[in-house]
Design brief:
This protein has 91 residues and is mostly helical. The chain has one domain. Helix content is 71%, strand content 0%. Helix 2 crosses helix 4. The mean pLDDT is 88.
Length: 91
């Protein structure tokens, strides 16, 4: 993987959305069945990874939390707080 040193904010947003696209698709499928967990490690892994990626992106880029939340809500209809609550439910 190469490090892109001259990425614009728009490039970073595009890269972020690309990196989380597969996780959002999996969450859409689980949302359709009301997040029936039943000890399924896939759901837990996806939520933990997604929350970690969101936190890291907020902390290490100029992408604002609100921009991320709007995108996530548009894609899967969940707020960042709801994602965190879902993650907390696994422990």
């Amino acid at each position: 993987m190469t490090i892109k040193k001259s990425m614009t904010t728009s490039d970073k947003i595009e890269r972020f959305t690309s990196m989380i696209a597969d996780k959002l698709e999996i969450l859409k499928e689980y949302k359709a069945i009301d997040f029936q967990y039943d000890g399924d490690n896939e759901l837990m892994g996806v939520v933990v990874e997604l929350n970690t990626m969101i936190f890291t992106t907020k902390e290490l880029t100029e992408i604002k939390e609100r921009e991320i939340e709007i995108y996530i809500y548009k894609e899967i209809g969940m707020t960042l707080d709801e994602l965190q609550t879902l993650e907390d439910s696994f422990y």
